[in-house]
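Record pair follows.
FIRST:
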Amino acid sequence: MPVARPARTRHLPGGALATGVVLSVALTGGCTAAGAHGTDDAPARTLVVLAAASLRDVFTDLAATYEQTHPGVDVVLSSAGSADLADQVLAGAPADVVALADEASLARVVDAGDAADPVPFATNTLTVVTPPDDPAGVGSFADLAREDVAVVVCAPAVPCGAAAVAVEDAAGVRVHRVGEEQSVTDVLAKVVAGEADAGLVYVTDAARAGADVRVVDVPETDAAVNVYPVAVTTSARDRGTDTLAAAWVDLLTGPDGRAALTAAGFGTP
């Protein structure tokens, strides 16, 4: 099983246009600072992995495993909403691997020629969370339509937002939205902070939040299952990191990756 070593794995912020610049600066500094991980004959190399926000924790653990089996390689993770990450790749941000929370977002990247051969590696579904004291008394999905219940969801352009709309359509319920966020972690943060009475988040994020939220078991969310794909970018070939990127995909889809994803609550595609 993966053992996290956060001192080596670096995370970069996921702001859309700014990220391309931040990544470039971090890579320049990273290759110099990472020299301790390599040798004079084999200088350290950097693998840049863009991952949907809901994958951040499990990818941090897998990055530690990857670095153990690939001496001299530093994994740099950048997490954000899938739509934002797809836009970043399309805008030319340096990346070797991109793993998103829905197939439609990655299809945009593949169709543009910026990635190839996507592989599904996990699934996820939504659930309803409230603050631990449940101030609005939410007990069912239908309660989310009440005007006295302030609900936060992902924006429709984001995979978790598209899934929320699909669940609403299947249930015939219109959620009383008071906010739409660009990533599922932002939705979760609003609920944890008490800024919303309820939120629609992935089951994996609800599990990660633990006692910070109350989970409402709503069968309606089974109507929308998100499939997570991963692909090697075409820029990885230009950067000479395509072999390293392919090894990441192998780890993710192999026994260690499957075990880590299952432990985090992700399903098998």
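SECOND:
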Amino acid sequence: MTAARDAEGQPTAPAPRLPAKLAAHPSVQAVLARRRAGAAVSPPAVIDAEWLRELCLAAGADDAAAVSLDHPDLAGEREHVESALPGTRTLIAMAIRMNRDNCRSPARSVANQEFHQSDEKANHAARGVTQALQDAGYRALNPSVGFPQEMDRFPGRIWVVAHKTVAVAAGLGVMGLHRNVIHPKFGSFVLLATVLVDAEVSAYGQQLDYNPCIDCKLCVAACPVGAIAKDGAFDALACTTHNYREFMSGFTDWAQTVADSEDAADYRSRVTDSESASMWQSLSSPPGYKSGYCLAVCPAGEDVLGPYLDDRKSFMDTVLRPLQDKQETLYVLPGSHAQEYARRRFPHKPVKEVTGGWQPPAKPSASTEPSASTDRETRTS
């Protein structure tokens, strides 16, 4: 008996024996018929890099590059990637440009609309690439660009894949002082997306051999809560407490304020009308970022750098100063460096103490007298 062969003339494995009822199903018969006719051809084991790049650009990305899951900088991602899509071999990083002057606007509605529109475009592009890879015969998956994320894992890692880590490994940019990826051409004005696929690619991106950051320190000057230090230190808690005030952690703090208020008058003494309106808006539409100024003032990137080089004073007067001068409430943890910095550096901006939504230390039972060690742990946790 002659062995069955595929469309390229290679021997194929014998078809598994199916139960009679399953074998008689019309869908099963259609699949088997296509296989016998040679229509079901496996996709190439290695994806052509040029084809993949053109696919990403056609889907809406402004730049794209692939990186192997075996890249040493992705060792910390392997467990999470393989959990999301078992068999993943490659991660495809994509960059989507944002409109610079929208991001720079002191009007948060303008800047946040730009962030959210770009976020939607990035998700749409990643989904389109995933669908095209699926249609080509590969298994592929695109995690969310931002929220929604895996909140059931909180306070642990809630993101499926670290887009910034992947983008840097793929050569789309370098992490700046402000903890945003700086693209060599588009600068900080990009959002990132990642697609996981179960195949290798013929050529992978190469990491940049220089940092697009020009060390201007404008992100340090723009941050209203001092989260970015000149020496490279970064206070993630200060950044999260203020910038993400109307995301999950800030909502939790607001809900606790509602719960702790004795009545409507007490609530209004704790939360201003504008704060209530802003929280309502973030609950009824995508939540708003309170700052993002570090990204807004960054002049790095070949497409962005010109005006800064032409007239640095004018650049600071038109881009940096309006954000520094803006009247706005700054949210800080009590007794934090952010609180001291905000009051000293921006005395015209009201500073408000919040818990940040973080879980407070557990209160000891009224019927139990805590030991000295328990009391010490509670006060220092």
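COMMENT: The CA atoms of residues 50 and 203 lie 8 Å apart.
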